[in-house]
Amino acid sequence: MKLITSESMQKLEKRLVESYRIPTQLLMENAGRNIVEKIEGIGMEKSWKQVAVICGPGNNGGDGLVIARHLNLRYPSLPITIFLAGNPERLKNDSALNYEICQRIGIPIQRVFPENPLGFEPGTLIIDSLFGTGLSKNVEGIFQVVIDAINEAKQSMIIAVDVPSGIDATWGKIMGRAVKAHHTITLGMIKRGLVVAPAREYCGTIHLADIGIPFDREPGIVPQEGFLITPDFIRPFLPEKAFLSNKISTGVVMIVAGSPAMTGAGLLTCQAAYRSGAGMVIWATNPQLAPLVKTSIPEVVSTILSDNKNSFQWEYLPHHADEICKAILQRKCRSIAIGPGLGSSWSSKYFIEKVIEKSPVKGVIDADALNAIAVNREFWKNRLQGWILTPHEGEMGRLLNRSASSIAENRIAASCALSQYFNCITVLKGPGTIVVSPQGEIAINPTGNPNLATAGSGDVLTGIIASLLAQGRSPFISAVTGVFLHGLTADLYQKQSPQLLASDLASYLPYAIKVVKNCEYRLPIVDRD
Ligand SMILES: NC(=O)C1=CN([C@@H]2O[C@H](COP(=O)(O)OP(=O)(O)OC[C@H]3O[C@@H](n4cnc5c(N)ncnc54)[C@H](OP(=O)(O)O)[C@@H]3O)[C@@H](O)[C@H]2O)[C@H](O)CC1
Ligand SMILES: [K+]
């Protein structure tokens, strides 16, 4: 499902006006009326004590005025008040016209002043029409006071028009303050910023309302600025064994993960790779762990790396990289996953870099392998073509030599910067995981929940993506399909149990695959009733 930026939405509106002579007044009328229909779908039957429509200085405010008018027509006995943050004399064109209509109809209008703060009684339906796609700077002064008042309303329902006010609809940033809505009714197309963190938490359930864009007349009218991953999109790429397949043709994965101190990371990565359809999983393990592998996951084939003769505790050394590269060729591996639980010693860092440099196949770079790359980032600039990097915000910060908080502020921009710098596919984990290619394709994942913030969850994702790669999917498609399935598994599991272990994720994965295959799943955040 295509996503759009604020800038393109504005261009699209201009184009509709110029090419089809659809007047902007009509678009605003369509917007307001269709939003009222969506509000009714959400629940007007709840007998709200009153309705507060908070209007700002631009066209988003104008939409609010149309909404107030239609609610007034449909529910004449319901007290509706328009709160205007801004000077009515400076309202432009369509907003000014709708302001005049509301005045003439006699809908109460109150101007909001700093000395006259807003407060809402319990049981108020609050329509947030302060700012939409035209937000151009941080929210301050009276606008900040209004947003705080909306967020402090008790036992009320907050419905945001187009965008929760204070959200940058292109990048998903919080511009100083933002409305925390229960529902967001977005117009025409889903704005890209709504589905990524941090904005995503402010949107509640997202609904899409039509404003009369003739999409079917011009399928190419909207530029490619990102898409929301959907079950329909990933269905053709799910694991599928051909009739004449064998374990090699299905796909062999090399896993370089785990160490004596962090065995679980390797086990989880291997398990996830098998559960997502790999024909054979090879684990490059060490002599101390080899017996454990046989008992824990008997299906795993281990490549036992040579013993460290002079040290008490086994550790990864650079020459082990040659052994892994040899095994990749011998075992006909088609992808590699490297990183989870490898440790952060200098010898493991050298080892990791050597594997990535020499490996005959490409794959997923995660966890300790990301940190090894970050230490030597200038060397790796532009050298990771075909590799998939799966950082969380902290790892991303190290890779870009920036603070984790600056990454969190604008996750899409950071993901694009990483893909550009290393020429790699980026998977920035977190709420609304982002997948970006060096060519600038941007995919946002709608699945997943906070239960995924558990040890080993990233190892499972690494195993899934590497497995899909081994099964012949492209790096971008493997990442997109992998993140969707990983999140969906957690969402489906949550219905059964509030507590999720990473090993549950790996075991439950085939169920998520089946649900997508059988078309039994609807997107959780976009309600297209
Ligand atoms: N795109 C469509 O097809 C349709 C969109 N509709 C609705 O219109 C808004 C977008 O309207 P727009 O007027 O462009 O923008 P806003 O209403 O969001 O706000 C613009 C005004 O707000 C001022 N502004 C911006 N940021 C701040 C701030 N932080 N503090 C104070 N004031 C701010 C801005 O001033 P400038 O100086 O920046 O110009 C403007 O005055 C869209 O979201 C839809 O709801 C339609 O009605 C239907 C068609
Ligand atoms: K709004």
Helicity level, as a percent range? 40-55%
Q: Indicate the mean pLDDT.
A: 93
CATH superfamily of the largest domain: Ribokinase
Beta-strand content bin: 5-15%
CATH architecture of the largest domain: 3-Layer(aba) Sandwich
Question: What is the domain tally?
Answer: 2
Shape estimate: elongated
Question: Helix count, per DSSP?
Answer: 20
Keywords: ATP-binding, Isomerase, Lyase, Metal-binding, Multifunctional enzyme, NAD, NADP, Nucleotide-binding, Potassium
Protein name: Bifunctional NAD(P)H-hydrate repair enzyme
EC number: 4.2.1.136, 5.1.99.6
Subunit structure: Homotetramer.
Structure description:
The structure is a single chain. The chain is α/β, with parallel strands linked by helices. It has two domains: 3-222, YjeF N-terminal domain (Rossmann fold); 231-238 and 247-306 and 313-527, 3-Layer(aba) Sandwich (UDP-N-acetylmuramoyl-L-alanine:D-glutamate ligase), CATH 3.40.1190. Helix content is 42%, strand content 15%. It contains 20 helices and 20 strands. The chain has helices at 6-20, 24-43, 59-74, 93-105, 141-152, 200-203, 231-234, 247-250, 263-275, 290-296, 318-330, 346-358, 367-375, 377-380, 393-400, 404-409, 411-422, 457-470, 475-494, 502-517, and strands at 3-4, 50-55, 80-84, 109-111, 124-129, 157-161, 183-187, 190-191, 205-209, 227-228, 252-256, 280-285, 301-304, 335-338, 363-365, 388-389, 425-428, 434-436, 442-444, 526-527. The strands form three sheets. Strands 10-19-18-17-16-15-14-11-12-13 form a ten-stranded mixed β-sheet, sandwiched between helices. It starts with a strand and ends with a strand. The model has no long low-confidence stretch (mean pLDDT 93). Ligand LZDS7PUF is lined by residues 9-10, 13, 27-28, 31, 56-63, 131-139, 143, 161-163, 187-188, 211.
